[in-house]
Amino acid sequence: MSATLIHLLRHAPQDDTHFASSLRVIGPQQGLLLIEDAVYALLPHTSAINAMQLLPASVKLFALESDVLARGLAIDDLPPRVKLIDYPGMVELCTQYDKVMSW
Questions:
Q1: CB under 8 Å to 79, separation ≥6 — which residues?
Q2: Which site among 8, 32, 80, 91 is 20 to 30 Å from 51 CA-CA?
Q3: pLDDT in tens, 39-84
Q4: How far apart are alpha carbons 54 and 57 in whole angstroms?
Q5: 23-62 burial string, b = 16+ CB within 10 Å, else e?
Q6: CB atoms near residue 78 (< 10 Å)
Q7: Is 101 exposed, middle or buried (CB count within 10 Å of its CB: 0-12, 13-18, 19+)?
Q8: Which domains does the chain have, with CATH numbers?
């Protein structure tokens, strides 16, 4: 897959400006991986999830499943384009991209 860049987001969208900044710079064929409190961006009916839904379809969206579960988010409520991954999957995913940008 060797796409150019994956953005690794770890802060809650409401507590930090990194979420909005990362969405502004993410380009086509890039990826976005939500970990830790950034998974709160997946809460239904929020401005954060609405903003992510506006990303081009070519942007791949991922979330760390253990962080989603630890924060009590309902997996059934996640958008279909978000792929849940585990820790080994996160490592593998990061190696598939040329660069990883941590926010």
A1: 42, 49, 52, 53, 61
A2: 91
A3: 999 999 999 999 999 999 999 999 999 999 999 999 999 999 999 9
A4: 8
A5: beebeeebbbbbbebbbbbbbeeeebbeebeebeeebbbb
A6: 19
A7: middle
A8: 3-102 (3.40.1260.10)
Query: In this structure, are residues 27 and 4 in contact, taking their beta carbons and an 8 Å threshold?
Result: yes
List, as one string, the DSSP characters of 63-83. EEHHHHHHTT--GGGS-TTEE
pLDDT of residue 3: 58
Q: Could you give phi then psi for residue 34, rounded to 5 degrees?
A: -95, 125
Is 3 in a helix, a strand, or coil?
strand
Contact of 48 with 37, CB cutoff 8 Å: no
pTM: 0.91
